[in-house]
Amino acid sequence: MNVPVDGRRSDSLCMPGAGDDPGSSFTELLRRDAPHELPGAPGGDVQQSASFVHATTVVAIRCADGVVMAGDRRATEGFSIANRRIEKVFPADAHSGVSIAGAAGPAMEMVRLFQTELEHYEKVEGEPLTLEGKANRLSQLVRANLPAAMQGLAVVPLFAGYDLDHAHGRLFRFDVTGGRYEEADYHATGSGGVHARNWVKAAWAEDLSAEAAIDLALRSLFAAADEDAATGGPDLVRKIFPNVATITADGYRAFDDDAVAQRAALLIGGREEGAPT
Fold first, then answer.
1. What backbone torsions phi and psi does residue 236 show, to the nearest 5 degrees?
2. In angstroms, rounded to a whole number, what is the distance separating the alpha carbons of residues 60 and 213?
3. Is the residue at 276 inside a domain?
4. Domain span at residue 156?
5. Is residue 188 in a domain?
6. Which of 258, 253, 274 is nearest to 89 (CA)?
7. Does some domain include residue 37?
8. Sign (positive/negative) of CA torsion 72, 74, 75, 76?
9. Quick check: helix, strand or coil at residue 110?
10. 26-55 pLDDT tens trace
11. Which helix (H) or strand (E) holds 204?
12. What digits encode the pLDDT tens for the residues 96-122?
């Protein structure tokens, strides 16, 4: 067991066996008592079909105050728009968040299980997991979805949070096998991820404020929408704008649509300011 100096467990590698007390792991409790409820469980409803909803582009940017997370609102089904207002950025707990890209149904199910897992651990142990421990738990959920991912239902989340022990923001990305990789400064994933990353790469700075990081995240999503048909751009007619959240020492804060709309209105038509050259 990996036990840091402060006594908190930083990972979940030492899990009880299938016949043991599940302890602080809600996932292990499900594996013992209701394995069919786990994401990607054998015998589930996974089918080899191209007709399912995909969530597309999400981005996370580290800033001086913590981390900013944002996602566009479009979900696609093949070549059709399945949903124009899907939520892609969620709180994981008080000081962390998760955003989703990939098969929307399994991704949302994974987020709900992850949120419950963290809440269950904190209630049983009396304290939250470390940020790295939370990333390890999410990695296990992504790994459990591998059978579904092999049939086309891949889930590739981003996880970020404010590390209270080290007083700075951190962010992690994952691959479909459950590989967990910490990114130093920023990352974007989904169909428009490469375009969003290029935009952020050109403008990111070490001392970026949260306000500036929000604007940069919005600009990156707008740029991705210009290049990627599956990424939804700002819709002034329907009043659809990206999900945006900040995670700082004060906790997770989601911005409402009106606040994002005001920022987006100022940026639309002025994207050349700070644009990559």
1. -70, -30
2. 9
3. no
4. 52-267
5. yes
6. 253
7. no
8. negative
9. helix
10. 777 666 766 766 665 554 444 444 467 888
11. none
12. 999 999 999 999 999 999 999 999 999
196 CB contacts (<8 Å, ≥6 apart)?
57, 59, 188, 220, 221, 223, 224
Provide the token pair at 67.
């981390």
Question: Model confidence at 79, in pLDDT bands (50, 70, 90)?
Answer: confident
**How does DSSP assign 106-154, residue by residue?**
HHHHHHHHHHHHHHHHHHHHSSPPPHHHHHHHHHHHHHHTHHHHTTT--
Question: β-strands 80-83, 58-63: how paired?
Answer: unpaired
Is 235 buried (19+), middle (13-18) or exposed (0-12) by CB count in 10 A?
Answer: middle
Distance, in Å, from the CA atom of 75 to the CA atom of 68, rounded to the nearest integer, reads 21
Distances (CA, A) of 56 to 26, 48, 62, 74, 256: 28, 20, 21, 7, 20
Q: For the chain, what is the radius of gyration of the CA atoms?
A: 19
pLDDT exceeds cutoff 90 at 270: no
CATH at residue 71: 3.60.20.10
Q: Give how many domains the chain has, as a whole number.
A: 1
Q: List the catalytic residues.
A: 56
Dig out the tokens for 123 from the structure.
């209630």
The answer to whether residue 232 is domain-embedded is yes
